[in-house]
Design a protein that fits this description.
Blueprint lengths: L5 H41 L4 H8 L3 H9 L6 H11 L8
Length: about 100
């Protein structure tokens, strides 16, 4: 014999919908970070600046630049401004 509890079922459905929305937002975030990293990488390469030199210019570890360009880390606002200044690009062009 099985029991059906409408209130419990509705809460489960709501939880699953929220979980799905969170997963979709996480996918969007990952794609946005990858796109941002690609734009930074292209700008850096166009200017002939090695990643190690850029990392020295902004005072970060070279692996940080690599992670930013691969979209692995969420770059901070200030680090992004420093990167843009070093690459001589307007931050608006990255979005």
């Amino acid at each position: 014999m099985s029991f059906y509890f409408p209130a419990y079922h509705a809460r489960c459905q709501a939880f699953l919908a929220i979980k799905h929305n969170m997963a979709e937002r996480e996918k969007e975030k990952v794609l946005a970070l990858k796109e941002l990293g690609l734009k930074i990488s292209r700008a850096r390469i166009q200017r002939g600046i090695p990643a190690t030199r850029l990392s020295d210019m902004i005072g970060k570890n070279p692996s940080y630049i690599q992670k930013v360009e691969l979209g692995i880390v969420n770059v901070s606002y200030w680090a992004l401004l420093e990167i843009c200044e070093c690459l001589e690009i307007n931050p608006k062009n990255l979005f």
